[in-house]
Structures are given as C-alpha cells and as structure tokens.
Amino acid sequence: MSAAAAAEAAAAEPARPAGGRAELYPARWWRPLPDGRLQCDLCPRHCRLREGQRGFCFVRRRTGDLIELTAYGRSTGVCLDPVEKKPLNHVHPGSSVLSFGTAGCNLSCKFCQNWEISTARSVEVLSVDAPPERIAAQAVAVGARAVAFTYNDPVVFAEYAIDTARACHERGLLAYAVSAGWICEQPALELFGAVDAANIDLKGFTEEFYRKITGARLKDVQDTLVRVRERTSTWLELTTLLIPGLNDSPAEIGRLAAWVAGELGADTPLHLTAFHPAHRMLDRPPTPLTTLRRARRAALEAGLHFVYLGNVRDEEGATTLCPGCGEPVIVRRGYTVETYALDESGCCRHCGRRLPGLFDADDPGGSEAALPWRLAPTGW
Ligand code: SF4
C-alpha cells in the first residue's frame, strides 16, 4: 500500500480484529510527508517518524507505511475509585468508577505523580490484554457507574479510549476522561465528544510555566478547553496542581479563574490540588493549606462559582454550596459523600435551584463510594 493510501485507510475507522487486541493496530490522525516521513497529527508535538521510530509518547510507532498504536487493548491495571477521586464533583456524586490506563504520555511534566506509568517503557510490556468490551463487562461486574481513562493521558491512546467509551455506552455505563488536554482539534472533538465528562488540567497560566515544567503549550490547552465547552456536550471540570513558587500566586490563579469564567463559564468547577514532591521535582515542599485557601479565595473573587481543594482535608474546600441559596448541598469528607441535599434531577432541596452537572435519581451519595477495592490486572 502506498503511504497516501495507508493514510487514507487509517483516517477511516480501523476495523478491530476479532478477539480484541490487534497485533498491529493502525493509528488515526497522521499523514505522509514529501520527505518520506510520517507525521502524527494527534497532538501538537507532530512527531515525524521514520521506519521503526516511536513518537515522544512511546506508544505510537511507525511500522512500514503506517503508524500503529501499540497500546491498543493493553491495560496497565484497573482500580475501583469513587468519582470524587478523579476529581469530578458534579458527576453522580458517590458513584464508583472503574479507572484504567495504558502506558506513555505526550507531556513531560517534571512533577508527574504517575511517572512510573507515563514514562516507564517496560510498563507497556507488562500490560495485559483488555479489549474495550472486556473493560465494560468488568465495570458492570463490579457495580461501577462508569469507566474512567485516568492513569496516563487518554490522548495517547485516543482510539482505544473512544472504542471503550462506545462499549461502555452499549452496556449503559458512562465514560470519563482525565487529561492534560494537549491534543489537536479533530481528535480532541472525537475523544472528548465520546465521553460523558472530562476533567482537564489547566496546569498554570503562563506559557513559560507550560514550556519549562510540562513541555506543552498553554494556548493549545486553552483551545481544547474552549472546543470541549462549545462543540461537545461533555461535562467539563478543571484541575490546577499548585506548586509552591511556580504557579501558586493569587494573582496568577485570579487571572486563570477570570479566563475560565469568561471563556468556559462561571459554573465550570475548578479543583485546586496540593503538590507533593515527585519524579523530577523533589526540591519543592508540599503545597501549604494556607496557599490553597488563598488561591481558592482568588478564584472565587474572580467569578467562579465552584472552587474545590484537593489532596488535602479541608471541609470548606470540599463542600458544594447551592449557588441559589448558599446552603451546603453536597458535603464530602475525603472521598465520601456525607450530606446530599439534591433531588433526583439535581435541584437544591432548599431552594429548587438546579446545580450544574450530571445528576439523576440514582444519586444518593451512597457510602459504597468508599469501597477500598483494588483489582489486580491478572483478574482479566
Ligand atoms: S501523540 Fe505521540 S506520536 Fe503523536 S505527536 Fe503526540 S507525542 Fe508524537
């Protein structure tokens, strides 16, 4: 097959061989270049690959006249989590989510909390076969409400995530994505359009921070966020990890929050989470609670209605107040929902104002959210 024909074939929906995982799964979103290289157009790195080369993310490799996704149908493990841990605070509170991931990442965050998965190349070798239908079936078997793509960025395994979201929907499950949002336009619309909710990082609010600390670009991520908000029906929440001395000033958080309120809407929940030294950033202290509280005040003053604190115990920063009457409608302790004062359509029981997010009659804020299950990959 010529490179042009292969690109055309890959741009269409690739057929998945019976039995789940393909030995060679043709990737989408790439094109041949005049100099013979193949350019990946999934994320803004646009890796240009010669025969046998892998992209920066490691899980996309040129093989002959196409690029393959080597992580398709390969999971590095699963775990049953409360949805609050993703974090998604306005999505079926108290429900359980089957979380899973693959290997590889297209960013290079110095502070990565999951660096063993995102960077370790041996992880891919240790992955187990987990075709989309099997993940969905496992989620049903353990009583999960949804499947979340979370341990590494689903951008790098977008085809697999999209197929898994479809398999979930066929079984009446929901699908969530947790991502850094550094992805090109068309795959962004397909990936985030395929899931019901997404938590996307807005890791800082300067290009310098993004370039030096994450290897990505702020403007690209902002474009993704606006696309998800304006061109999909996916529920969107944001996370910013506050790193002492790098992105934690109230002025920067105030600018970030003002942009979110103006471009994405004041009802977009923002999670400000505490940094803990990890990976290649061991020289910074954990984020003090006072810093998190100060940043939360700045974000609220900038116009956001829902600003939460994560990776710390803080009752105020974990509570959802009704924007109509100011009463606490969801009170959380850790990842457990303690008080739930919404009706079956997500309206405040005190004043009737609807809380933005995904809520329904199956949302009691039940205690099963705290199940300490951990499923071994060998259980597939
Ligand atoms: S998805 Fe991977 S291979 Fe494609 S451009 Fe991004 S880092 Fe490179």
UniProtKB/TrEMBL annotation:
It comes from Actinomyces ruminicola. Residues 90-307 form the Radical SAM core domain. The lineage of its organism: Bacteria, Bacillati, Actinomycetota, Actinomycetes, Actinomycetales. It holds the Pfam family Radical_SAM. Keywords: 4Fe-4S, Iron, Iron-sulfur, Lyase, Metal-binding, Pyruvate, S-adenosyl-L-methionine. PROSITE patterns: RADICAL_SAM (PS51918). This is Pyruvate formate lyase activating enzyme. The keyword Cell membrane does not apply. It comes from the Bacteria. Its cofactor is [4Fe-4S] cluster. GO terms for molecular function: 4 iron, 4 sulfur cluster binding; lyase activity; metal ion binding. SMART domains: Elp3 (SM00729). PANTHER family: PYRUVATE FORMATE-LYASE 1-ACTIVATING ENZYME, PYRUVATE FORMATE-LYASE-ACTIVATING ENZYME.
